[in-house]
Structure formats: structure tokens, C-alpha cells
Design a protein that fits this description.
Layout lengths: L5 H13 L8 H11 L5 H8 L3 H11 L13 H26 L12 H19 L6 H9 L2 H9 L4 H9 L4 H9 L3 H11 L4 H8 L11 H16 L15 H6 L4 H17 L8
Helix pairs in contact: 2-3, 2-5, 3-5, 4-5, 5-6, 5-7, 6-7, 6-13, 6-15, 7-12, 7-13, 8-11, 9-10, 11-12, 12-13
Length: 289
């Protein structure tokens, strides 16, 4: 848990005040997500919302036809996608489609080239869903969405805190993890900031916790299982080279996260293999453009 100094709190407020410059989820996506939450909604209700945006419709259909989502016959309409795949999968697809623009840009300071953060985020999402199934998490679609969003704080820091990156990188070169260096220089890290941005965007508490605590899963309050899943999927993605930036090689896996999920040390290699194979099998999810 990060205890912010007065200076860090003021700095955080300055950044959050400027987050209005970064559009949250598009209005049409927010409207569609609200329809999904309404138990009275139908596939036609949801399709009518999505179909108002031509670009979103095209991206939803492209993702719907990715083999990852497990349907063999080509899906031709949004309504068909919703009926066949279900609201849960379509919610994942909406988050992926909406966040692609945020996550596909170059992130200066973290040494992430254009598309690298998107590749890493989707790899963590795929890994989190795969891991969720292996540990019998009841709703594996939830960790998928959390995986997409977990590093959203990097896009905010990359945009607003560029002048501090030289000092942060110097500390990393001295042996600190990137997270430790962020806290030393800024008073907070990208995970904490990402959680605050998620709160400002009114995202569900489950997603806020997954973003806030993905480096420190044992600090989670209500959603420990899903935070541990994302934490381990993040570590596996980095170990396999998916979206490694300046902080990738210094990632520390929390052993207690494996205990929470009842994962033994001897199981880790098998899980690593299965998760990495999922990355390979579903690389088409990384290529939205």
C-alpha cells in the first residue's frame, strides 16, 4: 500500500485534473456497457447501440471472428456475435476495441515502442483468462478485461511525467525496479495512478483493484483472486518477452499470489507453457489495425 506524501498528493491531483485531456471510453462504448449490465437488455438492444458507430462495429466483428473466442463459423452481424458469444465475451471485445487507441501508442520513458503496450496488455489478458480456467475461477472473462486494463497508468505517466523519466531510469540502472523508482521520484507508481484514473472513469471496483494492485496483489481488498491472476499473468507475459520495456526484466513475482490460487512451484512451468502457447495461438488478437 502506498502512503502518499503531501507533495505526492498534490502532484497526483495535478495529473488527475489533466486526465480530462485523455478521453475515457467512448460514449458509445459506455452506453453499450450499461446495456450489458441491465438484466432486461436483449441482444438487439446491445446491437442497436454498437451499430451506431461504424468503426466500432467493424472492430467488434473482427474480434468476434478471432479464433480465440472459439466459434468456427464466420460471424457476419453484431447481433449474431452477441447471441453466439454472449454478453460477457462481447464486453471483453468492447473494452479491447475501445482501448486499442490508448494502448497502441509509443510510451516514452518506459521504452515501449508503438504497439508494444497493446501487445503486452492483450498478452496479459489472454494469459489471465487461460490461468483463470486452470484455477477454475468462475468467470474467466473478468480477468481478461482486467488484463487489458492493468497498465493503463503507464499511458498517463508517459504523457504527463516525461521530464522525470531520466531520474527514474537512473534509479533503475542502479538496480531498483521500475515501480520502486517511480515511487522514489513521483511518490506513487503507474499502478496506483492507473487505479485513480479508473476511479475517475467510473470503472467497476473489480477492475480498479486489478489495476491498482497488479504489482502488489496482497494489498487487494475485495477481489484478491482476480488481482493475483492478473499479477501472475503479467509476470508470465514479461518472462516470455511480451511487451518488455524498461521495467520488464525486473518484475518480481509475489509467491503469496500463487498460494492464494493454490498453485504449487512445480505447477508453474506447466502453467507458463500453457499461457505462452495461448499467446502464440491467438496473436491475431494483437493485430487490430
Amino acid at each position: 500500500m502506498i502512503d502518499l506524501s503531501q507533495k505526492a498528493q498534490e502532484y497526483m491531483k495535478q495529473i488527475l485534473d489533466r486526465v480530462s485531456d485523455i478521453p475515457p471510453l467512448p460514449h458509445i462504448v459506455i452506453e453499450a456497457l450499461n446495456v450489458i449490465k441491465d438484466p432486461k437488455s436483449t441482444a438487439v438492444n446491445l446491437a442497436n447501440i454498437i451499430s451506431q458507430d461504424q468503426a466500432l462495429t467493424a472492430r467488434v466483428l473482427r474480434l468476434s471472428n478471432a479464433a480465440y473466442f472459439g466459434y468456427a463459423r464466420r460471424i457476419k452481424t453484431v447481433t449474431e456475435a452477441i447471441v453466439i458469444l454472449g454478453f460477457g465475451v462481447v464486453e471483453n471485445i468492447l473494452y479491447a476495441a475501445a482501448l486499442h487507441a490508448h494502448l497502441s501508442k509509443e510510451v516514452e520513458g518506459y521504452e515501449l515502442q508503438k504497439g508494444a503496450l497493446w501487445e503486452h496488455s492483450m498478452s496479459v489478458a489472454i494469459g489471465a483468462k487461460t490461468l483463470a480456467k486452470l484455477v477454475k475461477y468462475p468467470k474467466p472473462e473478468e480477468p481478461f478485461t482486467a488484463g487489458i486494463l492493468h497498465d493503463i497508468g503507464k499511458t498517463i505517466i508517459g504523457k504527463f511525467v516525461q521530464k522525470e523519466f531520466q531520474t527514474i531510469n537512473e534509479l533503475v540502472e542502479e538496480g531498483k525496479t521500475f515501480q520502486e523508482a517511480e515511487i522514489a521520484v513521483l511518490g506513487f507508481d503507474h499502478a496506483y495512478l492507473g487505479g485513480k484514473v479508473a476511479e475517475k472513469w467510473n470503472l467497476p471496483t473489480m477492475l480498479i483493484e486489478a489495476i491498482s494492485y497488479h504489482h502488489n496483489p496482497m494489498d487487494a481488498k475485495e477481489y484478491l483472486d482476480i488481482v493475483c491472476i492478473v499479477h501472475i499473468a503479467d509476470a508470465v507475459a514479461l518472462m516470455s518477452g511480451q511487451g518488455i520495456g524498461a521495467d520488464g526484466l525486473l518484475y518480481r513475482l509475489e509467491p503469496k499470489a500463487m498460494e492464494v490460487l493454490n498453485i504449487k512451484e512445480e505447477h508453474l512451468e506447466s502453467i507458463y507453457t500453457q499461457v505462452v502457447q495461448a499467446f502464440i495461438d491467438h496473436r491475431q488478437l494483437l493485430e487490430l489495425d
